[in-house]
Amino acid sequence: MKGLKLVLLMVLVTGVAAGALSAAETASVDKGKALFNDPKLGTNGKSCNTCHRDGKDLQKAGNKTDLDQIVNACITHSIKGKALDPKSIEMKSLLLYIKNLGAKQPAATKPSVGC
Question: First vs last Cα of the chain: how many Å apart?
């Protein structure tokens, strides 16, 4: 009986720890922004933000179906880094951040008419 309780306790602790790890490893816009600004993503001291200051010119990039391939091309060529696994938390986070850039654009305003 004592052995069974110990086994159940170990299963419970392992399950809680695994849940905490999976929760910590969730893709997010914040993680994507951090990676976008991190020169350690490459090897030449540059980051994505070096060329795309604050996401400049990427507002419509989120619509591209091959965005992960484009991101990896920039990482490997422009900042001399290692391509990311398309299924990784890092890639998913970068894609979320880039897609979020388009969502933050203010709606076009109509010019005022009249006095």
Answer: 86
CB environment 85-94: b (16+ within 10 A), e (fewer): eeeebbbbbb
Q: What's the predicted TM-score (pTM) here? A: 0.70
Distance from CA of residue 96 to its chain's centroid?
5
- Which overall architecture, per CATH, does domain 27-102 show? Orthogonal Bundle (1.10)
Alpha-carbon Rg for the chain in angstroms: 21
How many residues are recorded in the chain? Answer: 115
Domain boundaries along the sequence of the chain: 27-102
In order along its 115 residues, the chain shows pLDDT tens digits of 666 555 444 555 555 445 544 556 899 999 999 999 999 999 999 999 999 999 999 999 999 999 999 999 999 999 999 999 999 999 999 999 999 998 865 555 555 454 4
